[in-house]
Amino acid sequence: MGNHQTFILMAIKRAKKSAQNGGYPFGAVVVKDGDIVGKSNIDDQEFDPTAHAELSAIRNACKNLKVYNLTGCKIYSSCHPCQLCLGAIKWVGIKDIFYAMDKNDAQAIGYADDIFMDDSVVLSKTKMQDENILVFMKNWYAQRNGQ
Fold first, then answer.
1. How many domains does the chain divide into?
2. Of 12, 15, 43, 109, which has the fewest Cβ atoms less than 10 A away?
3. How crowded is residue 112: how many other Cβ atoms within 10 Å of its Cβ?
4. Rounded to whole angstroms, how far apart are CA atoms 23 and 26?
5. Which of 42, 48, 58, 43 is nearest to 97 (CA)?
6. What is the pLDDT of residues 88-121, one digit of tens each?
7. Which domain holds residue 89?
8. Core vs surface per residue 67-89: b (16+ CB within 10 A) or e
9. pLDDT (tens digit, 9 = 90+) per residue, 21-47?
10. Active-site residue 54, yes or no?
């Protein structure tokens, strides 16, 4: 069992190890009841723009615990999570996020995830209606929920 400082230092250690191995300088750990249950995978970044430390640690925690929901867990990250990671953190039920650097710290050294706030980046979204997928999804959810 560890404390907040121990876990944030573990996230920073993973960030340093990732950078030393040619990866990005980010690290994260997921903690449940004072034990580390998930760690970011520093070896799984090549050609994967979604291989963020937080997502990797979440995947690892879910696999280790054999669950899809991490309610009751905490996540520790070397840097404030980006919008992609924040979405995943919310999706899996994690409510407590601890980080070593905030957005201002990151911006001060030249790193920023401003793409999420950039209104000049316009996405084209088109709904392509298909009755087959609606029926499939309805049946899948009913079966999953025992209806």
1. 1
2. 109
3. 14
4. 8
5. 58
6. 999 999 999 999 998 888 888 877 776 666 677 7
7. 4-144
8. eeebeebbbbbbbbbbebbeebb
9. 888 899 999 999 999 999 997 766 678
10. yes
Sign of the alpha-carbon torsion through 109, 115, 116, 118: positive
Active site residue: 32, 40, 54, 74, which one?
54
Please give the single-letter amino acid code of residue 76: Y
Q: State the pTM of this model.
A: 0.85
CATH for 136: 3.40.140.10
Amino acid present at 36:
I
Cβ neighbours of residue 81 closer than 8 Å, sequence gap 6 or more: 52, 54, 75, 89, 97, 99
DSSP letter string, 48-107: -TT--HHHHHHHHHHHHHT-S--TTEEEEEEE---HHHHHHHHHTT--EEEEEE-HHHHH
